[in-house]
Specification:
Layout: E1 2-7, H1 10-17, E2 21-28, E3 31-38, E4 41-47, H2 52-64, E5 70-79, E6 89-97, E7 119-120, H3 123-136, E8 140-147, H4 155-165, E9 169-171, H5 174-184, E10 188-196, H6 202-230
Parallel strand pairs: 1-4, 1-5, 5-10, 6-8, 8-9
Antiparallel strand pairs: 2-3, 3-4, 5-9, 6-7, 6-10
Helix pairs in contact: 1-6, 2-5, 3-6
This protein binds adenine.
Residues 76-78, 151-153, 170-172, 195-196, 198, 202, 206 line the site of adenine (ADE).
Amino acid sequence: MKIAILGAMVEEIEPLLEKVENIKKIEYAKNSYYEAVYKGVEVVIAYSKIGCVYSTLSATILIEHFKCDILLFSGVAGAINKELKIGDLIYAKRLCKHDLDITAFGHPPGFVPEGKVYVYSDKRLIEIAKRVASKKNIKLIGGTIATGDQFISSEEKKQEIAKKFEADAIEMEGYSVALVCDSFGVPFFILRAISDSANMDASFDFDKFLEKSAKISADFILEMVEEIKNSKDIFEQKG
Ligand code: ADE
């Protein structure tokens, strides 16, 4: 079994590269991919660059070129749900694309013909994450993650997205990665640690907490890799 671990920014994968072994760097399609081993499990680690276009490309490459069987995303997000504080972990139960808008033609926000507003995460990976959280006594919240090609730093915009999509957190890659994985039938899990509250302080908080929150997410993802290894029978059939 080969597990892809994708981030968007270098800060999101650095804590992973510090903990894996036998790293081999591969250049492919103008990006770097790191084949490595963690606790006996083959992993391929990469950061895509920010946004949906780059993350779509990287997720596709991890599946089609590197032949990964499972994809885990690790990174940071802005909080919408008031229960989420800086450093808290949220996983996506489902994801939507908040800036996909052809409402002018009478379609709902986030919907295009033959597409879907929400993509749902793999239930087995959610169970594994819950097990890790309970074993390690880590607070982990599941919710709706809204993705878009914008850094949100306004209370008004944040409330608008919250209302339209019942979103709990906001980021810039989750939905596109989820859509790629869903299309190829590859189980995926999108994890984010909160770096800011998508309000007027967001850019300041993001710079201040990016590294710390990215590490919280990366550490949890590595715990999940170990747990997946111990439960790998349930992934024998792609779901
Ligand atoms: N990722 C982390 N914080 C974010 C925000 N406020 N908006 C979009 N993506 C983010």
